[in-house]
Write a structure and sequence with these properties.
- By secondary structure, this protein is an alpha/beta fold.
- An 8-stranded mixed β-sheet has the order 4-5-7-6-8-9-10-11, with helices on both faces.
- GO terms for molecular function: hydrolase activity.
Length: 341
Amino acid sequence: MGALPQLIGDWRRNLHPREEDIGPVIEEIEGLIKVYRDGHVERLPAVVDVPCTWAPEPDVASKDVAVGHSAGLWARLYVPELRKQKLPLLVYFHGGGFCVGSASWRCYHEFLARLASQASCVVLSVNYRLAPEHRLPAAYEDGLAVMRWVRQQAGHRGPDELGWWRAHCDFARVFLGGDSAGAAIAYNVAVQLGSLGVPACLRGVILIQPFFGGVARTSSEKNTTQSSRSALSLTTSDCYWRMALPPGTDRDHPWCNPLAKSSPKLEDLRLPPLLVCDSELDILRDRNLELCEAMSSAGKSVEHAIYAGVGHAFQVLHNHHTSDARTSEMLTHIRAFINNS
């Protein structure tokens, strides 16, 4: 009997490590993540996970699939039913500052099922590796791995368990997209694909409140007051970047700031048309406006939409009284962009 209390004590310590075992917290975003000095990471259950079988949109079927050969890389498929023609494919990356979030979070499951239904497209929602355990460029590498997998699927012949999905996909009309950190992933994957020659199938990139940064503060970063319901403050933004970027680098790293001197010149990038969706009350508003203006000056095709009276991630967090109306506007813009590209 003497060994049993020791075993129970060890089990409890594994579930709830003591501070003296793992050291003090060195990075924290309240309610989302704690990083301890010894490298232990604790992610808090801020959003409930839901299975792919849960159907918020009755006309959309969903399934989880392993993607490629990378350990742990998977995605959630959303396929609108009762469509006679093949549909464009949107490869989507969720937000969360590169450090939190999941393709199985309820807020993303609801939003992407709605997007698939209203925009009439197939959605592949990617569950990529997270920082700080996997700092950048891990998420960007996962994005490229997913695009290689999509290309393999396009060339696949013969029946298998994914045949039902491929039968609905128009692989000649592929889009990259994401929100917040996921938008940064979509952008960087598009840039890397462009360096190899933009695939003819890549018709456009959809960036929803893209999460970029820089050492110099913009006006909206300095002056936009955030409520307690806000998904992103300047403090949390800085914390995410400290956890996501390689140690010893700052926010003018090319993986963070596409307008930094060390970043590739926009004129040299080969990119398909872009749709950038911003929020009036988002601290990132001015930074993304600067990017859109610089892209346009560099001769890139950029469509820019700003949604009034809402802040960062309103479309998934519903943290403003006009969130649903603004989300409907955004989905209308996304549908038009996809149909016209």
